[in-house]
Design goal:
Elements (H helix, E strand, L loop, with lengths): L2 H7 L10 H6 L4 H12 L3 H20 L4 H18 L9 H19 L18 H10 L4 H11 L5 H8 L3 H24 L1
Helix pairs in contact: 3-4, 4-5, 4-6, 4-8, 5-6, 8-10, 9-10
């Protein structure tokens, strides 16, 4: 089993799960994404559903890299609701992915501002459906990495997105995604080595 598979197996939602939307995200062209944005602006609910399918894993991954596991699904809904309401403010319909990344990061920042006084339950008191302890430990390590690396790693290992899918969704170049994955894995290996040495 490769290192990539070992990390991906820690997260049950990624094991064997890759939605048809994620599989076809790279098959769709940026112009088809722009046409979906334009159709949504004109009231086409199905077009917005398709955007949700295409960009949902990216939004989920960015949030998972920043906020507690249990709050991610609600925040994904919040991000898409906000995007739907503010879609008319998007200047360049070809930049939908990057715009959505910005909204997602801002929602995560807002989450932390609102929840400063709240504390997470210890893992042993957590309800069923949360990550197991090993996955939570891996996620905690990933969250210590620089932003670009942690988001890319979560999209890759937890969401099951490929490098080209991450690039297509976020607006990053494929080379940038490869560099982020490589450097992120290197830092993660170093952190895991330090943890094992303790």
């Amino acid at each position: 089993m490769s290192e990539v598979e070992a990390i991906a197996d820690l997260f049950p939602i990624s094991s064997g799960r890759q939605s048809a939307a994620v599989q076809t995200a790279t098959e769709a062209t940026p112009s088809s994404h722009a046409s979906l944005v334009e159709a949504t602006r004109h009231g086409d609910g199905r077009a917005f559903e398709r955007l949700y399918e295409l960009y949902g894993p990216m939004v989920h991954g960015i949030l998972l890299a920043r906020v507690p596991w249990d709050d991610v699904d609600d925040l994904v809904q919040d991000v898409f609701l906000h995007a739907f309401k503010k879609l008319d403010t998007l200047r360049d319909i070809n930049a939908f992915g990057g715009w959505l990344v910005m909204i997602t990061r801002n929602r995560a920042i807002d989450y932390h501002r609102r929840s400063r006084d709240m504390e997470e339950l210890p893992l042993d008191l957590a309800q069923k459906g949360q990550m197991d302890a090993e996955a939570a430990e891996a996620m905690a390590l990933i969250r210590t990495l620089p932003e670009a690396y942690r988001e890319t790693l979560v999209m890759r290992f937890v969401e099951g997105m490929t490098g080209p899918e991450i690039a297509a969704a976020t607006g990053l170049t494929p080379a940038s995604v490869r560099v982020n994955l490589h450097r992120g894995m290197k830092l993660l290996r170093e952190k895991m080595g330090v943890m094992e040495g303790i």
